[in-house]
Amino acid sequence: FQWNKNVCILGAPAIFGIGVRDLGVIAWNSNSVRVSSDSTIHFEGLVVDHILDLNTLNLDRATLQDSLGLGFKSGTFWRALPARFAANLRFGRPLGREDLGQLYTYELTVEQHYLPGYVPYARLDRNFGLSKALSAGVGVSYGGFGGFRVAAGMDAQVGPLRINLQTANVIGLVSDQAMGKSVMLGIEAAW
User: Fold this and answer.
1) Which of 21, 26, 151, 184 would bridge 139 by S-S if both were Cys, CB 3.0 to 4.6 A apart?
2) Beta carbons within 8 Å of 13's beta carbon, 6+ residues apart
3) What gap in Å lies between CA 133 and CA 72, rounded to an integer?
4) Residue from 47, 54, 115, 48 nearest 84 by CA
5) Is residue 106 within 8 Å of 140, Cβ to Cβ?
6) pLDDT tens digits for 11-54?
7) In a 3-state reduction of DSSP, which class is residue 97?
8) Pick from 111, 107, 122: which is nearest to 20 by CA?
9) Residues 6+ apart with CB under 8 A from 41
10) In whole angstroms, how far apart are CA 122 and each of 47, 70, 102, 117?
11) Interatomic CA distance for residues 91 and 6, integer angstroms
12) What is the pLDDT of residue 132?
């Protein structure tokens, strides 16, 4: 779900949006098996005496299902999906074609994912129109599963295609000590 509203900031047009993605639950039926573990698991293996003697093989279902000795439980249970809640503000001059996910000169995004260890994520981007079909952008972000990051990217619109090349962590690409190296190539089509 995404809701957008045209607003005015300091006399200039802008778009404010809020959205939710992957909101829901998964339900398992009563035949499901689960383990609630809060410690380290050490597994040394399953010992079966006389494994080749198939006439006297005595392995019951419970022994096989709980071969790790974790004390599983059967029953119905529910788990929430890792939903994403986001708000964004796009303002300044629009860049590129509207049908290909138009960029704006400035974009601010704040989001939260329903995941353990995920901290609120914020990103500020500055996009530059180099021509009618080519733009470049830089940004800074903090949060999520990482710390401070610097992003950079290029965006080209060729016919019905939008081709995007970017990295969310420039520092990770140029430093051997930084964690999180990433490059993304995206191709979108509009018809």
Assistant:
1) 151
2) 6, 7, 91
3) 57
4) 115
5) no
6) 888 899 999 998 999 888 887 777 666 666 666 666 766 666 66
7) coil
8) 111
9) 68, 70
10) 52, 40, 20, 16
11) 10
12) 83
Structure tokens at 150: 């610097």
pTM of the complete model: 0.69
Contact 105, 126 (CB under 8 A): yes
User: Which residue from 125, 88, 127 is spatially nearest to 109, judged by alpha carbons?
Assistant: 88
- CA separation, residue 26 to residues 21, 22, 116, 123 (Å): 15, 11, 17, 30
Q: Which of 179, 181, 22, 15 is nearest to 109 (CA)?
A: 15
Closest by Cα among 156, 174, 173, 157 to 165:
156
Structure tokens at 23: 């909101």
